[in-house]
Amino acid sequence: MKNMANDYKYHTHINSEKKWFELNLKEVWKYRDLIVLFTKRNFTVTYKQTVLGPLWLFINPFITSIMYTLIFGNIAKIDTDGIPHFLFYLVSNAMWVFFANNINNNAYTFIWNASMFGKVYFPRLTVPVSNVLSGMIRFFIQMIMVGGFLAYYVCVGTVSPNWMAWLLIPAVLIHLGVFGMAIGIIVSSLTTKYRDLSFLVAYGVQLWMYGTPIVYPLSQIGDGILKKIVLINPVTMPVEVFRYAVLGKGNIILEYLVLSWIITIISILFGIMLFNRVEKTFMDTV
Amino acid sequence: MNEKKEIAIQLSGVKKMYKLGQIGGGTLQGDLQSWWAKKRGKEDPNCKIGQENRLEGQTFMALNGINLTVYKGEALGIIGVNGAGKSTMLKLLSRVTAPTEGTIDIYGRIASMLEVGTGFNKEMTGRENVYMNGTILGMTKSEIDAKMEDIIDFSEVRDFIDTPVKRYSSGMYVKLAFSVAAHLNSEIMIMDEVLAVGDMAFQRKCLSKMREAANKEGRTVLYVSHNMNTIRQLCNRCIVMDKGKIVFDGDVDRAISIYLGDVSERKMHNEFIIREHDPWITTDIKITSLDSLNNNNLIRFGGKFRFRLTYICNKEIENFAFRICVLKLDRTAVATAYSDEYSCKNGETYTKTFVLDVSQVAPGDYQLQIIAFQADHLGKQIRHDYISSAVSFSIFAENQLFNMNWNSSAWGDHVLPNLVEEITNGQEDKQ
Prior knowledge:
- Helix content of chain A is 67%, strand content 2%.
- Chain A is built from 13 helices and 1 strand.
- Chain A has helices at residues 2-7, 25-30, 32-47, 56-75, 85-104, 109-112, 114-117, 126-156, 169-191, 197-210, 225-232, 236-247, 254-281, and one strand at 11-15.
- Chain B has 2 domains: 62-264, P-loop containing nucleotide triphosphate hydrolases (Rossmann fold), CATH 3.40.50; 276-399 and 404-411, Coagulation Factor XIII, Chain A, domain 1 (Distorted Sandwich).
- Chain B contains 10 helices and 19 strands.
């Protein structure tokens, strides 16, 4: 019978051992159609029975950017390296929302999907991956609006993007997508046991934004310990790269960009391993 | 090796342990508190008074050493009382949770239906949900495309396929969901009482679809149900589970009779020693035991139930009788029979063999209730003894009536004798 086990096309072996180094990415790939469907579902379900539908994708960042312009630009008078405040905030906000959503939407993966996960097996990682993909699509849709304003300011001559650096944008998106997902799935794995972490998430993400050059450019925070902290923050460099490409102004420090990538890779590997470990038995505790 | 019995599923030494009580403390604060208190050698603040260690030693073995080999093309029924471990086993097989000990090998893809319509989203249309549900159950999009028409046809909801499922009736919802699962390209199907839903016609359709899957397509079916009729129709092998173990594995009828014996906790020989206090019962007559004289308490439809009743008389009584009530397992009465009148002398033990004609009772699972009573001169009855469930038995149909299963929810529990045509030929008229 041993031979048959090896020959058989679909053979699943289940045992009680919990392996730490198990990524299972092959299986996720096998279920790629499911990822596509989950991504689609995220959109159909969000905008069904709404009057404005996907227009909300424009309304939210638009209003947020106006608010930031009023508060941080006009009242606090933060200098944005000569970039028009509104455009600066539009671009930064889009970037941040993309990252923050990767955490927020994935932090509850197990709890929100418990009823589905409890009935049938499929690689659970498909859910966070599809959440990141839908976040990316939302980001691209928002970029249409950003592009409109950008075109205006470029014509006026106040902004000059580094067109060559646009080639780096996909890398930035993957970077933030992967890192956000890593944090999200780590949190979601821990919330199966400790529910109170979920309160921390919303608050923590908000605080994190102020530790990232979103409402201010990196050049505005002097040289103290504060700058060190902001630089070590793995989100800082991708945001600066993005602004460097789109707005033409941004401080890219290669060492910190590499550091950010290292942190990202470690986080995602650790995240997936933790996630795979939790997915096996979380139904017993959730 | 490949020609006859290919293994589809193999479980060896599978155990599943659950922790009892509140699991994991629930909050980080709680766990930190417990940890800090332990560190300082103080009492755990989350401990209930008088309890030594929170959660420790309080475990429950939902499965306690399961060894099972299922071969390809088998339709395996799984029965057992609630909490016997049936659902836990299916959960392990469908990989919803992992075993605590032991290994499971599965050769083939599994379509598990622990619940119909997993992943159905109310906002999406029927068609979108078919894709969703199908991919969750492991099909690719192109496989679903190929089966889409079959699925829609089988589900009988073609007119509504592009309507959001939140507008569906619950029956339509279930029909669509079952259709998806039934059309999966899987080698193994796991079903947990999915047939309890949907109308009778659809249930029958589902059963025949599953039978076809097992017999013609050579798929392996694992089916859990409390409905013995569907088990009997669908399965060719049956296991009985109890307290996390397999207590019987083999013939379906034998398995069912073991299970039914378990349900009423009575076997062929039934003794009645303790009974609940009941002010309406005189206990002047005490029924002490009932011995079934039928093979495994299984009766062919149209047959008779024979049993030996033993009772003791504590008082001289004249003209008492037994009333025997046939009950379904849910305690609804089906039919009642009276015995002749008897007399008895104080202190004597009697044993009588009775024949209960159950030829008009439909195939199914039943219990007997026995009352020894006497009617006083006003026509009021005095109950001398009452046994609420004396024995369990099953009536099965060898040759189904018109090849259909008796549908007791629609047709009742009685089978009347066949219609007889009244002959009115010319000769009769002349007479």
